[in-house]
Structure to design on (250 residues):
């Protein structure tokens, strides 16, 4: 009798990297308090250089009336997400603006720009996330965009704020990346589908607690997941999340 063998395909398990909030790099410049998820400036950790094309995730607090003087950038997609207060922006393209909580700002630095960022208020700090993404095109013409979001569009769902497509919801960047914000209620369950093959998801908890694929995350924790097609979320408290769906190859 001929033997019959059953061949099982190997189970492909998602890969993860966990960055607990209190393991981030920290810089205290007096006027600036900054937490670095990835290596930045004087914080260098060879195990934390980037997550795919996600190069920088800085959690900044700027003292009243203070800020970053004019400085250059090139060939980077730079995203600012205000969390509290008012951040004033000026750049070499002639843009002068103020971004506030609920706004998203994007700069494609491309062939080169200079800009400055200051806390517009003299009595209150400003808190914001500064995020850098490697572009998929180099030396493009620099560009600036800013939008105001409807925060009701993220109640118990994921609101798209960034994509590769100019016609889509949110702002667009030169990269096959999608960002979402979620404002989830205690006990609610949600599924996120990875947008493109070869992408991974970096989850950053803005506030509260959540389970992501069964893993407990707290405020300001970060979790990168790749080699999977979807991620399951369960809010263990009311929570706010930033999801960054990015190519894993640079």
């Amino acid at each position: 009798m001929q033997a019959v063998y059953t061949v099982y395909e190997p189970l492909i398990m998602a890969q993860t990297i966990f960055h607990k909030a209190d393991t981030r790099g920290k810089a205290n410049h007096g006027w600036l308090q900054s937490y670095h998820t990835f290596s930045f400036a004087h914080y260098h950790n060879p195990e934390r250089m980037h997550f795919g094309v996600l190069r920088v995730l800085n959690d900044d607090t700027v003292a009243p009336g203070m800020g970053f003087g004019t400085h250059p950038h090139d060939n980077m997609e730079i995203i600012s997400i205000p969390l509290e207060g008012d951040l004033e922006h000026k750049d070499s393209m002639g843009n002068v603006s103020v971004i506030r909580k609920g706004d998203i700002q994007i700069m494609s630095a491309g062939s080169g720009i200079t800009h400055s960022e200051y806390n517009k208020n003299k009595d209150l700090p400003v808190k914001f996330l500064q995020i850098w993404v490697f572009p998929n095109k180099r030396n493009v013409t620099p560009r600036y965009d800013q939008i105001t979001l409807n925060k009701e569009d993220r109640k118990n769902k994921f609101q798209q704020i960034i994509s590769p497509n100019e016609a889509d919801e949110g702002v667009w960047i030169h990269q096959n990346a999608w960002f979402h914000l979620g404002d989830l209620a205690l006990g609610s369950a949600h599924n996120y589908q990875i947008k493109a093959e070869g992408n991974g998801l970096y989850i950053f908890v803005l506030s509260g607690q959540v389970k992501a694929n069964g893993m407990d995350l707290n405020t300001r924790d970060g979790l990168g997941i790749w080699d999977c097609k979807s991620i399951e979320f369960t809010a263990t408290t009311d929570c706010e999340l930033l999801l960054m769906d990015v190519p894993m190859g640079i």
In short: Residues 15-247 form a domain with the Jelly Rolls fold (CATH 2.60.120.10). The radius of gyration is 19 Å.
